[in-house]
Amino acid sequence: MLFERRKPLDLILETASKRSLTRQLGAFDLTMLGIGAVIGTGIFVLTAVAANKAGPGMMYSFVIAGIVCALTALIYSEIAAMVPVSGSAYTYSYAVLGEIIAWLVGWALILEYAVAAGAVAVGWSGYANGFLREIGAGLPIALTAGPGDTITLPDGTTAAGSFNLIAFLLSLLITWLLYLGTSKSAKFTAMLVLVKIIALAVFIFLAFPAVNSANFEPMLPNGWGTPLSGVGVLGAAASIFFAYVGFDAVSTAAEETKNPNRNIPIGLIGSLAVCTIFYLLVAYAAVGAVGAQPGGALSQSKEPLAFVLREIGWPKVGSAVAIAAIVALPSVVLMMIFGQTRILFTMARDGLLPDVLAKVHPKYHTPHVVTWVTGIAVSLFAAMFPVGMLADISNSGTLFAFFMVAAGVMVLRVTDPKRIRPFRAPLIWIVGPLAMAGCVLLFFSLGWNPTIKYFCIWAVIGLVLYFLYARRRSHLAPGNEYLLHGYAKDGKLEPDPLVQEGPNAGP
């Protein structure tokens, strides 16, 4: 039967305990990782994209996207505390909805994490290239954007790019950091999070006094928008949803977390709460200070927050905020690549991807092979595509995964009601359906061409790979069951070559 393969939760926990990563992260680390993953391109760069779609109405877009994410965070907290292993939505779907759905979720999460990392790297390069031009050290225009993107120069002219060199190099640098170790990456991220919070606080403090109510008129120049249109408040909400994506990356660090039953919910909900407050304040200040009509100056800027400060008479502070973005946005790339590697690591551990992707480095205790494979792919995404396209495509995969997690948690409440739940999502029969409905609304608000069309093509490619490769190699496939427990085909117990050995092994 097509949907018969499910991996029981107890078996998932058993597999994770045998092939585990080192537990070294606490609640503060997770919260910093979550904030580091969330506050980034969405607010520093996509504010301009949202302004072009919805004008001042993007304020409502931030609220809509934030509500959908808040509902989803409550659901994620329940399942992540129950199943504290790497894999995020993929693992949860495998336990409840079956292997083929889990594969599709894992495949969609490549859009959420790898493509999102590329989008953030492109957003970062916009600030970096702008700063280099300001100091007279700019790169040739062809090396500041991908072939599908254009650059607006200070004199108002535009030029096409060919290869985004800075975004490419940043992605490789972050990959190297992740290769060296998770605890080093967490400390690096925590420092960058503080830089971002300070930069946004300074922006709010200076832009608020410049708010003018006239800049909010007309509030809805493109209306609320309709599904598949990709414009209006709903279209902007679907794009700005990217600004919140990343909080769920906290759950991918479950196997590297001390006391995950307690710390994972703290990291998920805490990071999202902090980010939402900052987002609403920044969006209000930006719109009120300079206006945000579609086609206006703000909507065309590659570095919108720095642009706002320069426009209201704080050019040096604007440049400082640009520098802060340059310094801090790499933490988002780091968390996106981190999340992607942990999901692919888990899929390989289940037999759905090549075993080599589940190898753990004997010295650094990181999944080094999958880290480099992911990092190189992200570098190429970043070098070749514009930020708006990458962000929307990433959102499609994220919304699909969020929808499946909400469905899975509700199913599990019925099929396994007695299982211990360290955190229970409140009012699950209200929160769950609302989260699913919000995901569907935002998904279709992304617009058919090119986003949903590309998602459908990606899903078809995934299904082909599943039936040609992954299904027969799965550890749940007939004849492969011995792999689940580390046995050879003759029934003798053999050491698992993928298990981390030594004094730091295990949870």
Question: What keywords describe this structure?
Answer:
Amino acid/polyamine transporter I, 507 residues, mainly alpha
Descriptive report:
This protein is mainly alpha-helical. It contains 20 helices and 2 strands. The chain has helices at residues 9-18, 27-38, 41-44, 46-54, 58-82, 88-96, 99-134, 165-180, 182-207, 232-240, 249-252, 260-290, 297-300, 304-311, 315-328, 330-349, 368-384, 387-415, 428-445, 448-473, and strands spanning 150-152, 158-160. The chain has a two-stranded antiparallel ribbon with strand order 1-2. α6 runs antiparallel to α7 and α8 packs antiparallel against α17. The chain is globular, with a radius of gyration of 22 Å. It starts with 8 loop residues before the first helix and ends in a 34-residue tail after the last helix.
Helical percentage: 55-70%
Query: How many domains make up the coordinates?
Result: 1
* Major beta sheet summary: 2 strands, antiparallel
* CATH top-level class: Mainly Alpha
Question: How large, in whole angstroms, is the Cα Rg?
Answer: 22 Å
